[in-house]
């Protein structure tokens, strides 16, 4: 299922990153330029889990690789093992490290900028919300209902769709969930998939095989 998730990755965003069995998060990075006349050395200001840290800006202006490695060490130092920034430190560092390299190079010689403040914005998702629409469509194997040869699984749910509670009519388009085999109206299961990508009866995740 991991191969069929939407991607939010960009120059200033990473994710989805797995938190728990069916919970994910995306992290957007915000850099704010600040001017403080009393600060002599240009620095990068981190505030992670209530812990503040100031790092010389020059650490991130040497090369992209140095910027990535510096950031990875900072995240290991500032976060505990349960933090998403710790668990996915290498992924976060590769994206954020490149961003920091690019942004610090822009302001390192700018006299109006003495500090870059780094903020993290978290957006949380359940697995069902992240399944790509093109994969959902591929999972809809439409066929025509025929009372004589089709049943709605061993439990036999009286040949009706449990979403709308209407009976299946002869020659009506229906969709079976693979691999469980439960059957639904095409329109009903298509709408259901927008919010819940699993069988309404047994909660199995559909597949295209």
From TrEMBL:
Any one of the GO BP annotations: ubiquitin-dependent protein catabolic process
Keywords per UniProt: Metal-binding, Zinc, Zinc-finger
Keyword Oxidoreductase: no
GO molecular function: ubiquitin protein ligase activity; zinc ion binding
Residue span, RING-type domain: 161-203
Transmembrane segment boundaries: none
Keyword Zinc: yes
Name of a matching Pfam family: zf-RING_2
Recorded superkingdom: Eukaryota
PANTHER family given in the database record: RING FINGER AND PROTEASE ASSOCIATED DOMAIN-CONTAINING (PTHR22765), RING-TYPE DOMAIN-CONTAINING PROTEIN (PTHR22765:SF303)
Name used for this protein in its record: RING-type domain-containing protein
Organism: Zostera marina
